[in-house]
Amino acid sequence: MARYGGARADWLDLSTGINPVPYPLPELPAQAWTALPDTDAERALLSAARHAWHVPDDAGILAAPGASALIARVPGLAPCGNVHIPAPTYNEHAAAFSAQGWAVHSEAPRASPDARVLVHPNNPTGLWYAQTDLDAPLTIVDESFADICPDRSLTRFANRPGLLILTSFGKFWGLAGLRLGFAIGTPDLLAPLAEALGPWPVSGPALTIGAQALTDIEWARDTRTRLNADAARLDAVMVRAGATVTGGTSLFRLFKVDDARAWQDRLARAHIWSRIFPYSDTWLRLGMPPPDAWARLEAAL
């Protein structure tokens, strides 16, 4: 806004991978706001999460105030060593491990790493990983975008020692401001994270909304169908404008263009924000436009 003008309400933010049609907020009981988070409400949320993500019975689930709160604490689960974080990917994992003294490797080190972080599907490429990739003593799988295709989730392996699955409520359900995330793994792996988060880590409103959303199977099914259609539509729009599809998911698409900074500038002049990357002059990532913004995007292109 400082560079291109306009107020916040004038801007269309396509720089994130957040669902632009969020889960509809339910009526909240007054006690969700006025009382400390209720144990029964937390139990209901965790039960809904266990069912939604098909978590093994002998694995635990920890609710947190957003996946970022967990990412910052994960490096403390093991003594500092070598962590393999395949690049390019979401950069907060490397920042967290580096801040706590780990040696971060974007390429696989010659010796087996002490830890590995896999963003599944990867941001921004959309790459999915497999069971055979879960081979480090501490393996973190960030499934913040995996709800678009639950059949490909790796949560069914969450009872393996040393494997931690992170999930986010903000992306697929489109409620990033609610600040709700989960860690899934063996109880002994979750215990230090729970201790670090302290009591009442999740707000009363988040407990209530999360439990309802995670049990709304029909909404999730319809949303996946819409997102798949929107991703195909966005690909077609961008190809007509001269871009090439190079990856992504149904929550964000990755395109190759002749000059990513120039494309970002052109869109920004129409108050549409996009994502470019310091390691590529040709990659441009766009999230899905809301239903009423497609004509605006096409006009800007």
Description:
The protein has 301 residues and is of the alpha/beta class. Helices cover 31% and strands 19% of the residues. It is built from nine helices and 13 strands. It has helices at 30-34, 39-52, 67-71, 92-99, 187-197, 204-214, 217-240, 260-268, 294-300; strands spanning 12-13, 60-64, 82-84, 103-105, 115-119, 138-142, 163-168, 181-185, 244-248, 252-256, 272-273, 275-277, 280-287. The protein has a seven-stranded mixed sheet with strand order 2-8-7-6-5-3-4, sandwiched between helices. A four-stranded antiparallel sheet has the order 9-10-13-12, covered by helices on one side. It has a two-stranded parallel sheet with strand order 1-11. Helix 2 packs parallel to helix 6. The model has no long low-confidence stretch (mean pLDDT 97).
Descriptive tags:
alpha/beta; 301 residues; seven-stranded mixed sheet; 19% strand
Shape: globular
Please estimate the helix content.
Answer: 25-40%
Strand order of the largest sheet: 2-8-7-6-5-3-4
Using only C-alpha atoms, the radius of gyration works out to 20 Å
Largest sheet: 7 strands, mixed
Low-confidence stretches: none
Q: Count every helix, treating DSSP H or I runs of 4 or more residues as helices.
A: 9
> What series of H and E elements makes up the topology?
EHHEHEHEEEEEHHHEEHEEEH
Distance between the termini: 19 Å
Averaged pLDDT, please?
Answer: 97
- In total, the number of strands is 13
> Structural class, from helix and strand content?
alpha/beta
Strand content: 15-25%
